[in-house]
Amino acid sequence: MTTTTLDRRLDRRLDRTLAVYRTEAVHELLKLLRIPVFAISTIAFPVMFYVIFGLTFGERTAGGVGVTTYMLATYGAFGVIGAALFGFGVSVATERGQGWMRLKRVSPMPPLAYFVAKVVMSTAVAAIIVLALSLLAVTVGGVRLPVTEWGTLALVLVAGALPFSAMGLACGYLVGPNSAPAVLNLVYLPMAFASGLWIPISQLPSVVQVAAPFLPPYHFAQLSLGTFGASEGGSPLVHVGALALFTAGFLAVAAWGFRRDEGRTYG
Prior knowledge:
Residues 37-261 form the ABC transmembrane type-2 domain. The protein has helices spanning 3-33, 36-55, 67-97, 100-106, 111-139, 147-159, 161-174, 180-194, 206-211, 216-226, 236-266; strands at 61-62, 65-66.
């Protein structure tokens, strides 16, 4: 066999593998966008909250900037976290309960394609939320930022889907399909409030301000606010390091849950 023939075979195998990953990711996104409850709760809620709390109090300031600018970052973080937690956590829990994972295992699809597709879905929905909020902020809220700050803010917000996808994956392996939405809401909403995503962290009770650094959304919000100089504490490296630690912890929990399911099914 010549080197050229071997290279062609490797290229064809790589093309087929990438096609599987691409197809799985596209259908994962279409599946969730066709579920009205997911689209409304995940995409419309942060936009609605931004209108109510951001645009309504637009004449006020927070963190040294206008409220419309400040809450573009915090409600952007709120929306991205929701997309990752519910898009990942609820769907994994539901598909585990339906036996969908066993069907995937007997298909020729690489197991990793299933998880990569959900990460792609989370980041794509996060990008839609950030785009919707940005358009609203510019056209109605009068938010004006340098292009570099817009780009950095959007990049930080969309990248924030990764640690919370890990958190959603861990939850998806810890809870059942019926309890997943309730459990995630019990985690998501108090965590968002205590991390300063709805109200600036400096305006929350002192006990909440002390607890906030132990919550991953706090570090995500401060990173986002820091892109235009409105961070209320900590250096960007500390926030990145904290999110990396949280991500590693959630992935470890998810890996344990995956192995537990595998043991119950095939062990």
